[in-house]
Every structure is written in structure tokens, then in C-alpha cells.
Design goal:
The complex is a heterodimer. By secondary structure, chain A is of the alpha+beta class. Helix content of chain A is 24%, strand content 36%. Chain A has two domains: 221 residues, 3-Layer(aba) Sandwich (Rossmann fold); 112 residues, OB fold (Dihydrolipoamide Acetyltransferase, E2P) (Beta Barrel), CATH 2.40.50.140. The longest helix of chain A is centred in the middle third of the chain and has 18 residues. Chain A is globular and about 80 Å long. Chain B has a two-stranded antiparallel ribbon. In chain B, strands 3-4 form a two-stranded antiparallel sheet. In chain B, strands 5-6 form a two-stranded antiparallel ribbon. The chains are: A alpha+beta, B mainly alpha.
Chain lengths: 356, 736
């Protein structure tokens, strides 16, 4: 295979982007994407993640702050002069060129000999599993194939950084899973630096080395998928990632690493994560509840509102003193029907204290 | 050193060291000057030769400004000095050339105050020549590179240079001449500035009178023009849409033929349609005589005035509306219509709620073009106007008529400008900020929805009737060239063609003995030169307007669209006023005709480009940029190929306009460069209708050939959309 990696890091140093006069799209954001890693920018629409990506590409220029790729300050360098390529949400395949011409485009631009560009393009297509499709027009391919052409077109340039702008949002669910795994495999095998934008938290958890969660133009939290899932920094992150149940709790006392917490009728010991005594929240993962139909057992009383069978697991909505809880149970044999009274307790994991 | 800077340094120094600084009277390309005393003859010398002889010392600073960019050698773009040096050199040099050009003229100092200050100069200078053009270009591009290096428009040299280039040429060839004529609006005949004179002319009854509402006297020219333009704009847009729909969304078998037919009227000099209308509906016209004989209707002069002009302008401008509409109608992604149909919309609902709203930019553009064309049209009102005064002809008569009142012409032009600019802004407001992007980077299959049934038959009826009428009009033109004298002696003859286009084989070879050949070849070459230039300038401007954001963009757009709103008569006069004297001396040359056509027709290229480009997804450009292509490469390889329909429209239209234009041309032709249209008008004035019509017929066929060649060259947009599936007709069903 002719495609190698020239992976470089990406550094944002107090970057701010303001559109027009008043719309702050990105507000004093700093982060580092290490070379060879795939980092996801995750957040709801309008949070500034796409603007951040476009500033890495050079399609938008920062108003203040610095952008570095590797050691080079690229803050005012236009897209053309940056060694970065991008996979667009709409794929942006050139409709008047064949698939082969599309993939070879960047190589031709950089002045590579026609023959070599052609064979490199063929390598690229092979990498994404589309050998032999070079002579077709983009409109003659399916959505998933077009998407892979867009990936190949970006890959063959061996960019220092590869950017993905919601690349899977136009694909169906099954294809989405398959293509995201392919992207991740290629990225890992070639050791590419990749920055990936999505609003789908599952997709982010699946492909990322690290995730940067953005909200309202600032970074809400960054960390590994596990960090974000298990130790959300605030209510927004806890809610956005993994559909956590957020319940009100009282911290009674703090000693050492642990805090004594009162949650309805339950008494719990949880890592305090810097919180003091008083009112707080707990984020509870849906799979961290234990549900028992035995009314005499310990736990919080509740009633099953809805029960949905999903093949490999059950989803319940349980009405309790803590509010409506969204619960996932792995037992699909002994299912509980709606209106049944239950007792709910907590597993030893998946419960986290979260400040406001 | 930066390669682009080096390139323009070389160009600049060629301008200083090798080429003559001043314009050469006998023509540069004759190259006689090379053997005739170059370099030390005062008429032909490059800058250094003038200076060595101690003449024209005011040119001395120019080479100094051209030395400055050498200092950028070894500096990188982000170095603040790099941009500063280039801007000082470029802006300084350019300003100096302009200033010295205006203060030293053919009689020495141009301003008496300078003469009082410095004493008589004793020397003179002529218009700027090729040397000066190259040096000015070099200075211009140093400036733009300096500005780009400071980070303007993301530091994109190509975009900044394009903006700079267009601003410079639009300034020199639109704003400068128009300002000359507007200045004369405020002057009385002795050249003294006076607001009273302006107001007196502005409130003239000939402009704003409303007598036609309550008496038999005609209304003011302004009201007439306005009413005519709105009517023509609306009707041509409707007809253009009808033809576009028939051409793209009907199962009609011969729709390609229909397409070809609608091209006919634009390849026709406008006054020919006027003449043909007279041959049909005039006092001794065929239709008039027919109705008189059969129904006993008394012949009247009804066609002279609003009805005649309206019909003629509809014939002339419907195809332009069609060309605008077809790009838009084709550009609508079929998946939009398919989406609507899957949302339970039937064909009628789909058409009215999706297809038609998506065509709004096209409709607005078509109306705008029709409105302004009608306002500026000169040929048809001249032939058919009767007592119906419109602004464009009034301007002409104010200048060439007995009054010879430049001020009045300028005031009339001002009124006209207000109308067209108002229309322009109303259009933009109406369009709003909705996104009409329909060609996305995602390839899409699918076919256009066919027309709903309840629309199909009305549309067919209109399209076919109009086509039939057009065919009749053209038959009149064809026929008129072969009869002895129209209306009197209808015997068949070739004599008009022989007079105009005879050739002789003699010992000396082929001799073009016909009377029309001179003007014919001039017209062809001028049109051929100006068409690609117009298309290039127009599309480049469109690209900047649609794809780039920069400070002052609104002003830029206004400037590039301005010439659209100026009628040809005014442009013609303003060019004579502005380019008769240094620093830009162009009257009597072919260049003035080319420039006139480029800047008169540029907005059509811009419009076509803007309409087509706003339907191209911006991520296509961005993809190209992130793949390492610069914006120049992106423009060539991505934007232009996807704009082929717009390119066709721009090329065809500017070529044809250059061949058929009359209003501006009539002021600018010279003995050496006579154009076909002005020659024909001359024949018409001598009542030599036969020869005039014969010549027109030949022009029509030449332009038709040109259109076909252009279409062949540019080709169809390669989109990979499937052809509409062939519907099984009853005939083929039977065959199975």
C-alpha cells in the first residue's frame, strides 16, 4: 500500500471566532489533539463544533488566539496551504468528475505525475474497498460508496490531519456502524491524526481516543470515552452522553475520597469529586439500576410505566419518588409488565455525583 | 522572491524598458514603429528614452516606484514590511500614473492654476499606450498582493487580485465615463455648474407629464418607459418560463427543436423585428391589408406606439428570459420534486409548492433583465415609437437632434438609472435570504417531474402560438430580402444580396467587392474578441459575489451591475466624452468598441453566473481547497465546469449582443471600424430596405452558426442524471 501517515498534532490556543458582530461561535477554546489520535468534537447543533473543525481546515479564520498544526502556526494560513484534508457531510464529490478523478484531484493539484496520481488513487479506492469503481460518476454510486470515495479522496493526500464533518449523518444505521468501524480501522492502521465532528454520542464513544464535548461555544469536558461516560463534569455532559438519569441528592458528609449521600430512602457512599455537603445531583446510568418485583426487599418503591422489549435488553420507565427513571435491564426472560410495583436499588457502578 | 511578484516585476519592467509608453496613432500591432525611429522618436519611445532625451520628465518617478518590489526579495509573506513595500509601490505608482495622466494633456497643463503656478509646460502628452498599460497592471497587482499578504480575504491572492482588477476596470470604463456625463447634467452649455438648470430640466413636462390620462397628448417619457418595462418584464418572464418548462419537463418529442427556435430572436438585430412588425401590421402591412380586404377594417396606425414596441420587445427578450430560466429549471434537483411527491403532493401541488418557488431566483433575474432591457432598448422604439416617447430615444434625440443638449440627455439618463436601480433592489428584497442550493455535492439520480396535466395544455398552447408567430415574423424578414421593393413591387430578385455580398475571382485572387463586407468583417472580429472577454469578466465577478465575503461587497456588486442600468445611448456618448482625450485615448479605434461591449454586456454574464453559482453547494469549493487546490485552480477545475450552461449563456449572449447592438455603437463607429448595424441603419435611412433586410438575414445566419458552434464547444453539463425514462406511447405499445 502506498498510503502512509504524516500525522501531526493540532493545538488550539485560546481561540475565539465571532461571526458578524455579536455571534460568538467559539469562545476562548484551547485543546490539543495528539498526533496519531482520533479526537471527536461532540455536542448539540450550534455548539461550535463545526466552526472549530473548519478553523482547523482553514475554511474559517480565528479572530483571536492561535491554531497550530504540528509545530507550525497556521492561524492565518488559508485552507489551500494547510496539510489537512476533510470529509464533508454532503461528501462534496465533484459531480462532473469520475470517482477516480475525484480521488486523484488533490494529487494532481500537488503536481504529481498523472500516472502516479492514478495509481495512488487506485490504492486509495482499494483501501476503502472500492477497487474498480474509478471510472464511474459519483451519482452512479450508493450513499455509502460515495462516502467512502470522499474518505479515499482525503486519505490519498496523506494529510497531517484528517477532518470529518458528520460524515455518517447521511447513511442508514447499519451502514453507519460499518463505515465508522472502517474509518476507525484505517485511522488506527495508518496512525492518522483525525478530528471528527458528530452530534451522535454513541458514534463518538465508538470511534474516539478522546472526546471533546462542546456546549454554547465552549468546551464542556474533554477526556476518554470512559472518563466522559463515568465521570461527567456537569449535568450537561451527563445528560448528553449515555442518557443518564439525573436525580436530586443530599450530601450528608465528606470524608477522605468518599461522600455519604442520601438519595430518597437510600444511603450511598460515592466518590465526592470535589463536592461539598449539601444539595447535589447524581447521574445514574440506565443499566445501573437493579429492579426487583419483591415488594419486601430494600430499595426505592416504584411502578413500571412502560416496558419495551428490544431483543437483547428491556427498557423500563419506572415512576418513583426520585422522578421517572429510565432503566435498562438485561433480563429479557422474566420481564415485568406495566403497572407492576417494584423496588429499585443501585448497582455498584454507574452512579456518579455531579455538581450543578 | 515570491513568484507572482517576480512575474509582475518582469511585466512592469517590460512596460518601462521595451514598449512605447504612449499610444501609437497608426496602431501598435502594425509594428511600423519598430523601424521608424524606435526608441528615440518622441512618438514611440519607452519611458527611459523620453527621460534620456530630457523630455517628459514627469515620467521619471514611475521606474522608481517599480524598483521598490525588489526589496521584497528574501522576505516572507507574513513579514509586515513585505505587504507595506508592495502597497507603497503599487498604490503609489498607480496613483502617480493616474494623476500625471490627468494634469498633463495634449496642450500641456490641463489646469490653468498649475500653469499659473509652474509656468507653461511647453510639452504635451498623448493617451497611455501598451507600456503604460503593462506598468499600471503591475502596480495594480503589487497592491492586491500587498493587501492579500495583510490577510484580506483569508490572504487569498487570486481573489484579492480579481477584486482589484474588476474594481480597476469598472472604475476606468464605467464610473469614469458615466461621471463625465453626469457632470454635464449639472453644467449649463457654457460649462458653468448650476443646480437651477438641472432642476429646470429634471421637472420638464416631457419627462413627468401625465397628459395621456385626460387628453390625447402623450404622457412623459418616464411614465411611458416605466409602464412599458414592467409589461415587457412580466410578459417575457412568463413566456421564458413557459418555454423552459416545455423544454425540460414535457414528454414533447420535438422539444429540442423548440429550444433551437427560441434562440432565433436574440440573434436578430432588434430593429429588424420592428421592421418586420411594420411589414405585418403597418399601414401597408400584410395583416392590415388582409383584415381590410376580408373584414373591411380601416387600416390604422395602431402598431406605432406602445403595442408595436411591446410586441417587438417581447419577441426580442423572451429568449433571454428563456436562457435564464432554463439554467434554473434544469438546476432544480429532481429529488426535491420526488420528495414532494412522496409527501403526498400530486404533480400540480409539487409544481406550485416546490418547483415554482425554487425557480424564484430565475424568475426574478428574468424579470430584471426584461425590465432593464426594455428600458434601455433603442432600436425598436426608434422604428416603432410613433408619438410614444421613451427615455432611451429621448436621450438620443437630445444629443443628436436639433437641441444638442447634453445636460438634458444626462438628466434623462439619471431618471432612467433611478428606475433600473430601484428595480434591482426590489428584486433583491423579494428574493430574501432563502437558500436555493439544489445542486449539492451528493450526486443524485432521478428525473424531473413532468408537468401536471392542467398546466400542460395551456403551456403547450402558449408556446406553440408564440413559436408560430415568431416563424411568421422571420419569414417576413427572409422574404423581404428577395423582393424588389416592399409594398410596391413584389417580384423576386437577388439584387440586394449581390450588392451587399458579391465576390469576384480575378487574377489577383478573391476580391470582396460587395458593399457590406467591410462592416461585416469588422463586426465579426469585434464580436469574437469581446464575447470571451465579457464571459470571463462576468463569471469572475459572479464567483467573487457568490463565493467570497469581504468589506465593501455591496458596493462592489452595485458597481459591477451599474452598466446594466445605463442605456447604450448614454454609454456611447459618455465614451466619446471620456475617451476622446488623454489619458485614455480610444475614439476611432476598434478597442473602444470591444470595451464598450465588454462593459455593456458584463452584467448578463454576472447574472447568469450568479444564478447558476448560487445553486452550487459551497462545500464543493471547500473540498477542493482542503485538498490543496488554490482558489484559482478551484475556479477553473470545479466552478467553471459546473457552470457550463451559464458560460454558454454568457458567451452566446455577449457575442450576439456585440453583433446586434446599435444604441451605443452608433456613437462609437468610425470610418475604419464601421459595424454592421450602423451600416444597416444607414441603408434604412436611405429607404434601401431590401439591402438592409438582406444584410440582416445574413447576420442572422452567421449568428445562428456561432450559437451552434459555441454550444458544441462548451458542451452539456456532465451531471450523471439519468435521461427521463421513455414513456411508452400507444404506437410503440401496439408494436410490442
Amino acid at each position: 500500500m502506498g498510503i502512509k501517515s504524516k500525522a501531526a498534532s493540532v493545538t488550539f490556543d485560546h481561540v475565539t471566532k465571532i461571526y458578524g458582530e455579536h455571534v460568538t461561535a467559539v469562545d476562548d477554546v484551547s485543546f490539543v489533539v495528539e498526533a496519531g489520535k482520533l479526537v471527536t468534537l461532540l455536542g448539540p447543533s450550534g455548539c461550535g463544533k463545526t466552526t472549530t473543525l473548519r478553523m482547523i481546515a482553514g475554511l474559517e479564520m480565528a479572530n483571536t488566539g492561535r491554531v497550530l498544526i504540528g509545530d507550525q502556526d497556521v492561524t492565518i494560513l488559508p485552507a489551500t496551504d494547510r496539510d489537512v484534508s476533510m470529509v464533508f457531510q454532503s461528501y462534496a464529490l465533484f459531480p462532473h468528475m469520475t470517482v477516480g478523478e475525484n480521488v486523484a484531484y488533490g494529487l494532481n493539484v500537488s503536481g504529481m505525475a498523472k500516472d502516479e496520481a492514478k495509481s495512488r488513487a487506485e490504492d486509495g479506492l482499494k483501501l476503502v474497498g472500492l477497487s474498480g469503481y474509478g471510472a464511474r460518476l459519483p451519482s452512479e454510486l450508493s450513499g455509502g460508496q460515495q462516502q467512502r470515495v470522499a474518505v479515499a479522496r482525503a486519505l490519498v493526500l496523506e494529510p497531517q490531519v484528517l477532518l470529518f464533518d458528520e460524515p455518517l449523518s447521511n447513511l442508514d444505521a447499519k451502514l453507519r456502524r460499518q463505515v465508522r468501524e472502517e474509518i476507525r480501522d484505517i485511522q488506527k492502521n495508518l496512525g492518522l491524526t483525525a478530528v471528527y465532528v458528530t452530534h451522535d454520542q454513541e458514534e463518538a464513544l465508538a470511534v474516539s481516543d478522546r472526546i471533546i464535548v462542546m456546549n454554547n461555544a465552549v468546551i464542556a469536558q474533554e477526556g476518554t470515552p470512559r472518563d466522559l461516560y463515568e465521570k461527567p463534569a456537569d449535568l450537561f455532559v451527563a445528560d448528553f452522553i449515555g442518557d443518564a438519569n439525573l436525580v436530586d441528592v443530599q450530601i450528608k458528609s465528606v470524608s477522605g475520597e468518599l461522600a455519604e449521600v442520601e438519595m430518597a430512602s437510600l444511603q450511598l457512599s460515592l466518590p465526592h469529586r470535589g463536592l461539598k455537603s449539601g444539595a447535589a445531583h447524581a447521574a445514574i446510568r440506565p443499566e445501573s439500576f437493579l429492579v426487583s418485583t419483591d415488594q419486601s426487599s430494600e430499595g426505592i418503591s416504584g411502578t413500571i410505566g412502560k416496558a419495551v422489549y428490544l431483543g437483547n435488553h428491556m427498557e423500563y420507565l419506572i415512576t418513583t419518588d426520585l422522578g421517572d427513571l429510565f432503566v435498562v435491564a438485561s433480563d429479557v426472560v422474566n420481564t415485568i409488565s406495566p403497572q407492576t410495583g417494584v423496588k429499585v436499588t443501585l448497582a455498584s457502578h454507574g452512579v456518579t455525583l455531579v455538581g450543578n | 522572491m515570491n513568484r507572482t511578484v517576480l512575474l509582475w516585476l518582469v511585466v512592469g519592467w517590460i512596460g518601462v524598458l521595451i514598449l512605447p509608453w504612449y499610444v501609437i496613432e497608426d496602431g501598435f500591432w502594425g509594428l511600423e514603429w519598430v523601424l521608424d525611429g524606435y526608441p528615440f522618436d518622441t512618438d514611440y519611445g519607452p519611458t527611459w528614452a523620453h527621460l534620456l532625451e530630457g523630455e517628459k520628465v514627469w515620467l521619471a518617478p514611475i521606474p522608481l516606484f517599480l524598483l521598490l518590489p525588489f526589496l521584497t526579495g528574501g522576505r516572507i509573506k507574513s513579514d509586515p514590511l513585505y505587504s507595506k513595500i508592495l502597497i507603497v509601490s503599487g498604490l503609489g505608482g498607480l496613483s502617480y500614473i493616474v494623476i500625471q495622466g490627468f494634469i498633463v494633456g495634449i496642450a500641456g497643463w490641463e489646469y490653468t492654476s498649475l500653469e499659473l503656478l509652474f509656468g507653461p509646460l511647453g510639452q504635451k502628452q498623448y493617451g497611455l499606450g501598451y507600456g503604460a498599460i503593462l506598468v499600471s497592471a503591475a502596480f495594480l497587482f503589487f497592491t492586491t498582493q500587498g493587501i492579500a499578504a495583510r490577510g484580506a480575504v483569508n490572504g487569498d491572492v487570486f481573489v484579492v487580485s480579481s477584486i482589484g482588477f474588476i474594481v480597476a476596470i469598472v472604475g476606468a470604463f464605467i464610473f469614469f465615463p458615466v461621471s463625465q456625463i453626469l457632470i454635464s447634467a449639472l453644467q449649463d452649455n457654457e460649462g458653468v455648474y448650476s443646480l437651477g438648470v438641472f432642476l429646470e430640466k429634471f421637472t420638464d413636462k416631457k419627462i413627468w407629464g401625465l397628459d395621456c390620462l385626460y387628453s390625447t397628448v402623450g404622457c412623459g417619457a418616464a411614465w411611458n418607459s416605466l409602464f412599458l418595462a414592467i409589461t415587457v418584464g412580466a410578459t417575457t418572464t412568463a413566456l421564458g418560463l413557459v418555454f423552459a418548462l416545455v423544454a425540460t419537463r414535457s414528454g414533447f418529442k420535438y422539444r429540442k427543436v423548440l429550444r433551437a427556435l427560441t434562440i432565433l430572436p436574440i440573434i436578430t438585430p432588434p430593429f429588424v423585428i420592428g421592421l418586420s412588425i411594420i411589414l405585418l401590421f403597418g399601414l401597408s402591412g400584410i395583416m392590415t391589408q388582409f383584415f381590410g380586404d376580408v373584414f373591411g377594417i380601416q387600416p390604422t396606425r395602431w402598431v406605432y406606439g406602445l403595442p408595436g414596441i411591446w410586441i417587438a420587445q417581447m419577441l426580442a427578450y423572451t429568449p433571454i428570459a428563456f436562457l435564464v430560466m432554463i439554467g434554473v429549471v434544469e438546476g432544480i434537483s429532481p429529488s426535491m420534486e420526488e420528495a414532494a411527491q412522496t409527501l403526498r403532493a400530486d404533480r400540480w401541488k409539487t409544481f406550485t409548492t416546490v418547483s415554482l418557488p425554487l425557480m424564484r431566483p430565475g424568475l426574478a433575474n428574468a424579470f430584471l433583465i426584461g425590465f432593464i432591457e426594455s428600458m434601455a432598448d433603442f432600436g425598436n422604439p426608434l422604428v416603432l415609437g410613433g408619438n410614444f416617447d421613451v427615455l432611451s430615444t429621448e436621450i438620443f434625440f437630445a444629443i443628436v437632434g436639433a437641441q444638442n443638449d447634453q445636460g438634458m440627455a444626462a438628466v434623462l439618463a439619471f431618471v432612467l438609472l433611478c428606475f433600473t436601480l430601484t428595480a434591482f433592489y426590489a428584486q433583491r428584497r423579494w428574493l430574501g435570504k432563502k437558500s436555493y442550493t439544489t445542486v449539492t455535492g451528493k450526486g443524485d439520480g432521478g428525473t424531473h417531474a413532468l408537468l401536471p396535466n392542467r398546466l400542460r395544455w395551456p403551456i403547450y398552447t402558449v408556446a406553440f402560438s408564440w413559436t408560430g408567430f415568431t416563424i411568421v415574423v422571420y419569414c417576413m424578414i427572409l422574404f423581404g430580402g428577395f423582393v424588389n421593393t416592399w409594398g410596391l413591387d413584389h417580384t423576386f430578385t437577388f439584387k440586394h444580396y449581390i450588392t451587399a455580398f458579391s465576390v469576384n475571382w480575378t487574377d489577383g485572387g478573391l476580391q470582396w467587392t460587395g458593399a457590406a463586407w467591410d462592416s461585416f468583417w469588422t463586426t465579426i472580429s469585434i464580436a469574437t474578441i469581446s464575447a470571451p472577454l465579457t464571459a470571463a469578466v462576468g463569471l469572475l465577478t459572479a464567483y467573487i459575489l457568490v463565493r467570497q465575503t469581504f468589506t465593501g461587497k455591496d458596493l462592489f456588486e452595485f458597481g459591477t451591475m451599474l452598466s446594466f442600468a445605463i442605456p447604450g445611448t448614454v454609454i456611447g456618448v459618455s465614451y466619446i466624452l471620456a475617451f476622446n482625450v488623454p489619458p485614455i485615448e480610444l475614439t476611432g479605434t476598434g478597442a473602444i468598441l470591444v470595451l464598450c461591449f465588454v462593459f455593456r454586456n458584463m452584467p448578463v454574464g454576472v447574472r447568469a453566473g450568479v444564478a447558476a453559482m448560487s445553486q452550487l453547494d459551497k462545500s464543493l469549493d471547500e473540498a477542493s481547497l482542503t485538498l490543496g487546490a488554490n482558489s484559482w485552480y478551484t475556479f477553473r477545475k470545479i466552478v467553471l465546469p459546473l457552470l457550463r450552461p451559464a458560460i454558454i449563456a454568457a458567451l452566446v449572449y455577449s457575442f450576439v449582443r456585440a453583433m446586434t447592438a446599435i444604441s451605443a455603437v452608433i456613437f462609437l463607429v468610425s470610418a475604419e471600424y464601421d459595424m454592421a448595424t450602423s451600416y444597416i441603419i444607414g441603408r434604412v435611412e436611405n429607404n434601401d430596405y431590401g439591402l438592409a433586410i438582406a444584410y440582416c438575414t445574413v447576420l442572422i445566419f452567421v449568428m445562428l452558426a456561432a450559437v451552434l458552434v459555441f454550444q458544441g464547444l462548451v458542451g452539456e453539463r456532465k451531471m450523471g442524471r439519468r435521461e427521463p425514462e421513455k414513456t411508452i406511447t400507444p404506437a410503440s405499445a401496439k408494436a410490442i
